[in-house]
Amino acid sequence: MSLRIGIDIGSTTVKVVVLDEQNKLLFRSYERHYSKTRERACETLHSIEDRFRGQNVKMVITGSAGLGVAKAAGVDFVQEVYATAAAVREYYPDTDAVIELGGEDAKIIFFGGALEERMNGSCAGGTGAFIDQMATLMNVTVNELDNLSLKHEKIYPIASRCGVFAKSDIQPILNQGGRKEDVAASIFQAVVDQTVAGLTQGRELKGKIVFLGGPLHFLMGLRERFVETLKLDEEHAVFPQDGDCFAGIGAALCAADYQERSFEDCLKLLEDSVDVKTAVDTMPALFASQEEYDAFLARHNANHPPQVDAASYSGPAWLGIDAGSTTTKMALITADGGLLYTYYHSNMGNPVAIVLEQLREIYRLCGDRIQIKGAAVTGYGEDLIKNAFSCDLGLVETVAHYNAAAHFNPDVDFIIDIGGQDMKCFKIRNGAVDSIMLNEACSSGCGSFIETFAKALGYDIASFSRLGLFSPHPVNLGSRCTVFMNSSVKQAQKDGASVEDISAGLSISIVKNAVYKVIRAASADDLGRHIVVQGGTFLNDAVLRAFEQELGRNVTRPTIAGLMGAFGAALAARDLGLEHSALLDAAALETFTHSARPATCGLCTNHCSLTVNQFDGGRKFISGNRCSRPLGKERAELPDLMKFKYNKLRSMHGEGEGDGSRGRIGIPFGLNMYENLPFWFTFFTRLNFEVVLSPESSRKLYLKGQRTIPSDTVCYPAKLLHGHVEALVEEGVDAIWYPCMSYNNDEGIGDNHYNCPVVAYYPELLAANVPSLKKTRFLDPYVGLWRHRDFAKRICALMEQEFDIPKRETRQAVDAAYRAYESYVNTVRETGQEYIRYARAHDMPIIVMCGRPYHIDPEINHGINDLVTSFGFVLVTEDALSDLEGYAPRHVLNQWTFQSRMYNAARYVCTQEDMQAIQLVSFGCGTDAITTDEMRDILEEGGKLYTQLKIDDISNLGAVKIRVRSLMAAIEARKKRN
């Protein structure tokens, strides 16, 4: 019998395994291939050539990137799930499930009966690549990240479905002084949550689980999080010694059925495949000649601030600090905007230490000649830096960037800023930031996107970008997620594209993503005539050139594109006109100290994750709070209709006007129950049932039902319901009432009055996926409340059949329930008007929060209403105003009740000078893909600002704060103009 070789070519690594006739492991290797898959496999086989030359072998290839290599080489291929299963059955025959994490893929294989496999689809959140990205973000190696995680004290909730989301959750924690140890463990916990929630899809993980793949083999902290989350003991959590090469071992085991060759023949087949090439889809070059590039550079280099010699200058100066998501930028300027000192560097996850070091350097440079008259700070770390060093002003970054752009081009009407992980675009109308777009779901159009590829191919970002400038045939890579782009890049490489072609292709793809995915522009005119580009990514000439080519017009890129936030902050400090700055002086910096510790606030149901920062002299700064209570101040209670409605609905439980003699009916408090609860509460209590509401939503409640969620892409409000029904089963109610409702009440303001499909039919999904519902009576009949007579007839029959209740009694309960619902609707409208009168009497601006009824749940909105009222707004909701406008045709089919209300409320806002609207959008909401564009059109045509807040299961409000403060700045600028 011959030796068997298994080669597992994954998305980032090549594993080679050699087994003898008794399945004994003779050789194994695990190495990164940096996209050179065939070359890496050949090198490994060459390294063992002396040992196995002249022997007959059977060789099989497997892995996510293995099929192309196998085809090109004419070597047998076996699918990786099949290979993994073969190895597991050989060595661990009593396994119930396998969890395998690779570089860019994650899979769960269920054994027992037929093999069932679940794999990540469109996103590499929660894989090795994601962990690599997070380690880079924290400026540590993956091993250091692992060691840090083992010393954690608390876990923060972090989104893992996408690197961008994770970054926007991690960044504020780090910028506000959170411990790296806690963040490291939270990253691993996010991977666990993503794997369990995203891949089990409602099937329970139990029994003996084998953990495979590189990340689970090398990272002890990740293992710990899996074992703790799944509550496994040593017998049920198996980490094989060769878990990183298991698919390779499986491929070798499968090789017994395939053709035998000499070792030399196998090696030659692989070597011959290295040079096989296929056709590549290409695009026109960025620059046709050196002359064209020189002219391009001359045009852009003309936009620079005056150069000042700091060594000879004496006089006043102003300091701007931009504590960004991954970098800290600083600019010291003279009165005319001349630059005395600049700084641009990664903040290493510790912006305070960086700013401290730089301030000492600035004071050394200034001596007695230069006096700092003002200091302003902007960016993610604004609050922390402002409090640490007593800066005179903190300003929202959109305003800082506009200040800087207007300095170089006073007519600017569109600003696009592409940073490392974030992209911000703002339209400027009449001298104020008018509408803001941020990348919410994906960072594939950002700088870190190119950096990730540069590193994977072994280059630093600057030299990698330069390679593409004169590539004659840039590869067309499309505009997709980083992970998919990875496979496009790998394919292009296999097809023979050069690194130069790939570099140029990536620069073009970043631009396409920005223009068509984030800005969603139909043409260049959608952006503007006077466009200023900024952010470090635009210092890359290839990206800038691609942007101008895509738009077909020239744009302004200042030479300090990467420093614009700090420059704009410095201009704002200058405009304060202060005689003396409160900034800590050189002497105060000598005794400066800073420490941070995590804490959880218990003063309300939000349970904010706080970071308590201590500075020298007993100074303290608390971050992560959504209200002023942890700071020792009482909460400022401004009228807030979201809170009013929530409290009113939560009070609807118990026996009401009945006596509870017929038993306890459980009602899950989620989705359309926020609309229909007044009806059902009155209906059941009149029939002498006690109504038991499920507990208030919380992260803990979500985790209770997480394993039964079959779809990772459904919205968070729907995911929460799994926990709500589980809690009601545990409560031991006699029955759970959660009917299917295709239609909502007809309010006469839309073309139809449907509920969205998730709201309408989620009860059926719960019935099919939550096993514990079999322990209780789960009633999910179809009902139509809008057809009063028909509903009364059907519900009478149902109540008689289920509970033996006489029809006459049910009919009386129906009448009372309709009256109760009407009364609730009127109360909401009247209270809305009362709040508006209060705002006008106290000269306060009004925010109309447009969302769904269930967006008032604090676990869903994460306290956004508290944040908005803390800025001095009175808050009312769309359903309090939607009846004040009649029916009007829209550009789209207006067939959902909740959306119709938002359109009408937006139309009404356009008629009121003191109102602005904010739209709440749940991540993963299909209908909102249409609603957001329609809302933007209504508000912008009516001369209002459009602000959209996207919310999901993560509670960090960093991006929300930026938007609300930008809205405030725009309102302020409009006031000044008028």
What's the helical proportion of residues?
Answer: 40-55%
Enumerate the spans where pLDDT stays under 50 for 5 or more consecutive residues: none
Report the count of strand segments: 31
Strand content: 15-25%
Radius of gyration: 31 Å
Mean pLDDT across all amino acids? 88
* Number of helices, counting only DSSP H or I runs of 4 residues or more: 35
Sheet with the most strands, sense and barrel status: 6 strands, mixed
SS class: alpha/beta
Tell me the span between the first and last alpha carbons: 90 Å
Shape: globular
Protein described:
This protein is α/β, with parallel strands linked by helices. The chain contains 35 helices and 31 strands. The strands form 7 sheets. Strands 1, 2, 3, 4, 5 and 11 form a 6-stranded mixed β-sheet that branches. The protein has a 5-stranded mixed β-sheet with strand order 8-7-6-9-10, sandwiched between helices. The chain has a 5-stranded mixed β-sheet with strand order 14-13-12-15-16. α3 crosses α12. The protein is globular. The N and C termini lie far apart (90 Å). The mean pLDDT is 88.
In short:
The chain has 978 residues and is of the alpha/beta class. Helices cover 43% and strands 17% of the residues.
List the helices and strands and how they pair.
Elements: E1 3-9, E2 13-19, E3 25-32, H1 37-47, H2 49-52, E4 56-62, H3 66-73, E5 76-77, H4 80-91, E6 97-101, E7 106-110, E8 116-119, H5 128-137, H6 142-149, H7 163-175, H8 180-200, E9 209-212, H9 214-218, H10 220-229, E10 237-238, H11 246-254, E11 261-262, H12 263-273, H13 290-301, E12 315-323, E13 327-333, E14 339-346, H14 351-366, E15 370-378, H15 382-389, E16 393-394, H16 397-408, E17 414-418, E18 423-429, E19 432-438, H17 447-456, H18 461-467, H19 482-494, H20 499-518, E20 531-534, H21 541-551, H22 564-575, H23 586-590, E21 594-600, E22 609-615, E23 620-623, H24 641-650, E24 664-667, H25 673-686, E25 690-693, H26 699-705, H27 716-731, E26 735-737, H28 757-769, E27 777-779, H29 788-803, H30 807-841, E28 846-850, H31 858-861, H32 864-870, E29 874-877, H33 897-909, E30 915-922, H34 928-941, E31 946-951, H35 958-977
Parallel strand pairs: 1-4, 4-5, 6-9, 9-10, 12-15, 15-16, 17-20, 24-25, 24-26, 26-27, 28-29, 28-30, 30-31
Antiparallel strand pairs: 1-2, 2-3, 4-11, 6-7, 7-8, 12-13, 13-14, 17-18, 18-19, 21-22, 22-23
Helix pairs in contact: 1-12, 3-12, 4-11, 5-8, 6-8, 8-10, 14-15, 16-22, 17-20, 18-20, 20-21, 25-30, 26-27, 27-28, 29-30, 33-34
